[in-house]
User: Fold these one by one.
Assistant:
Number 1:
Amino acid sequence: MDQTVLLLLTVSGITASMSEIVVVEEGSDATLPCSLGNNDSIKQKVFDWKKDGQEGRQEVFIYARGDYYGKGMDGQDQQFRGRVFHFAEELKNGNASITIRDTIVADSGNYTCIFPDFDPHRKYYVWLTVHYILKDRSAENIPGKS
Ligand SMILES: *[C@@H]1O[C@H](CO)[C@@H](O)[C@H](O)[C@H]1NC(C)=O
Ligand SMILES: *[C@@H]1O[C@H](CO)[C@@H](O)[C@H](O)[C@H]1NC(C)=O
Ligand SMILES: *[C@@H]1O[C@H](CO)[C@@H](O)[C@H](O)[C@H]1NC(C)=O
């Protein structure tokens, strides 16, 4: 069950920026919202999703004027390969949301959606929590299973 709530983040009492919280259960899909908030097309723009990690930021997804990971681009973090998709039909509405399929607990963390074409860059924040669920994991632990 996807659940999204809004959080008001106050940084040093001066800047207030909206951050979204997304909570899902392990194994389900998570949609991370990001939108310019007007209806201007971003088909010819760039947006870059990164995740804060212990060893710096991980590359989650990049869309660059029609190219993206899996189509004409590489450099995506191994953890996200083949699991992250944008919404092609939504680009014309300025919507840079992505879906992470088949989430794992390690996907939990803070994500930033960056539009580098703007000066200063536009950034949006999403905090994803993937809940561990009890299930039979014996099939995952068979030695030698690829
Ligand atoms: C964007 O387009 C939708 C659908 O046409 C409309 O409902 C919405 O009000 C528009 N938003 C802005 C910010 O123009
Ligand atoms: C962006 O697209 C996603 C996927 O269709 C949708 O869930 C979300 O509501 C859209 N966001 C806006 C602001 O329209
Ligand atoms: C995500 O960011 C919030 C606000 O900056 C912070 O309180 C929280 O600890 C971060 N979560 C993780 C998993 O890093």
Note: Confidence is low (pLDDT under 50) at residues 1-16.
Number 2:
Amino acid sequence: MADRACATLVSLVVMQTGFRSLPSVDRLTSDERLKGLESTYSRGVVLEAARQLLQESRRAIAEGEAAPSLDALVESVSSRVRLLAEPSLVSVINATGVILHTNLGRAPLSREAVAAMELVSQGYNNLELDLETGRRGSRQVHVSSLLCRLTGAEDAMVVNNNASGVLLALTALARRKEVIVSRGQAVEIGGGFRIPDVMRQSGAKLVEVGTTNCTYLADYEKAVSSRTAALLRVHSSNFRIVGFTQDVALQELVELGHRHGLLVLDDLGSGCLLDTSRFGLDPEPRLQDSIAAGADLALCSGDKLLGGPQAGIIVGRKHLIEKLRKHPLARAVRIDKTRLAGLAATLLHYVKEEAEQKIPVWQMIAAPLSDLDRRARGWSAGLDGAEVIGGKSVVGGGSLPGGTLPTRLLAIRGAARGKGANVVPRLAAALRAQRPPIVPRIEGNALLLDPRTVLPEEDGAVRKALRDVVRSVAGSLPGGTGS
Ligand SMILES: *Cc1c(COP(=O)(O)O)cnc(C)c1O
């Protein structure tokens, strides 16, 4: 009993000493090293960081930890200040080999698209002003005629993203009515978003027909009733059913739909304007093919294979687009000026037939293997434990399910077990901690970096980071320094 009381007393004394050795907020923030931060980040931010840290230190001391030194506190306040007053959304180097990576912001933009977005953001612009008449105009004119020229559609409009395009179309055209979809196309598009849920939000009733792997035209026909408004085709963007499958061609759907006076809507998902089979990939449905097949509306994303900023593209019949434009929901999902400018600049690359040379997504798809090999070798030259191997890049982003391109990878292998087994996750974490952060791919116990998705101007940064990171984690690499 006395022993316990004594121990409690000792720890109380230690705690009191710990508390007392902590500087006051004023003393901490008057340290010369932190004074310098005030001019960059403001006194308020430095104070906030110091208060947070001292509070956390008091809590840690109360739990029996030792008090941090002044140097450690200053160091922590500096990094806390950056956390509080620097943007957390930063540019990263994508070495995963996944061209359209939703977690990494999907499509990188062309120089021209970025310049156009910057230009309209810096000052005012003619977003909704007809310069000829001086009257109010529509923001849609900046892209609609481009989209019509590229797809052969009667009319076009652009909204916030493809999901909102689908929501708008179904709300304006099929609310309180039925929409028939093949069961194999009632898909989840990622991030937990499911086409059936988006459809329900519109107030349209989803009628699923067929089975997961097989849907026939007769299945659609049997489901048509007086309540049916539309037939909807959804591109099964992110998966592929192989083996015994049966799908209905869009043309057949159009023929059936129009015979019954129904609309035919085509959600292409990625959507694209170029022929992907030229690059050894499966043919990805193109907007112009949908329109040629007779779809009343075709919808797709702006930031998948199109290679532009986030947007939802809707092309098709004039009277339908007109209805969508006038619907109150159109205002709620409208696109902003910067993305409109970026999208117009991106579409102009297609008009000028220079997409493969100017749009990063297509440059990456078209990159010759010999270039990728040369760049991977450039990264690995003189790097302990690294080798260049063959592998596959992925198109990704809900397009070309299973679509891969042969590539060359820089590979660093970790040991299967024992010392060095965790070297791969450590290297990956160290690469992510670089500025700019580098995101590699991990496969089994190998760290892989794919030059296909790394912009050529980022090669220097990758080479330097690899050297620094491998040196700092060295010793645990098989065949590496110190092993
Ligand atoms: C990606 C995708 C969407 C959603 O597009 P966002 O532009 O991300 O809103 C909708 N439908 C399909 C089939 C898709 O692949």
Note: The first strand starts at residue 93 and ends at 94.
